[in-house]
Specification:
The chain has 125 residues and is an alpha/beta fold. It has a single domain, classed as TIM Barrel (Alpha-Beta Barrel). It is built from five helices and four strands. Strands 1-2-3-4 form a four-stranded parallel sheet, covered by helices on one side. β1, α1 and β2 form a beta-alpha-beta unit. α2 packs across α3. The protein is elongated, with a radius of gyration of 17 Å. It starts with 13 loop residues before the first strand and ends with a helix.
Length: 125
Amino acid sequence: KVVDAGGRYLVPGLCDAHMHVESGMVTVTEFCRAVIPHGTTSMFIDPHEIANVLGLPGVRLMHDEAVAMPINVHVQMPSCVPSAPGLEHAGAELTVADVAEAMTWDNIIGLGEVMNFPGVAANNP
């Protein structure tokens, strides 16, 4: 099918490769509502901050909302909450068992960023 774009430009949908939706103090729904008109069709979100506050239930909340969006919102599982154990006290903690459970959810596509680089260097899970 040929579409006459009338002198306009046609580009593929935009993909945001790493996003912390909750940094914008909005829900996944509201963030999608803001970016869809500008061409974003896919996002990879890392709900690390909500995990710091609510733990695994917070990640599940964002995961379930992401699945209901009209665009592709892929969720990465936060891998270290708190991000620097011993240096900060977040409202919640994620255990290895929490991460393993979340990795079985339909829309968890991998691990989010690892911020505890001293732990990685020391081979500390």
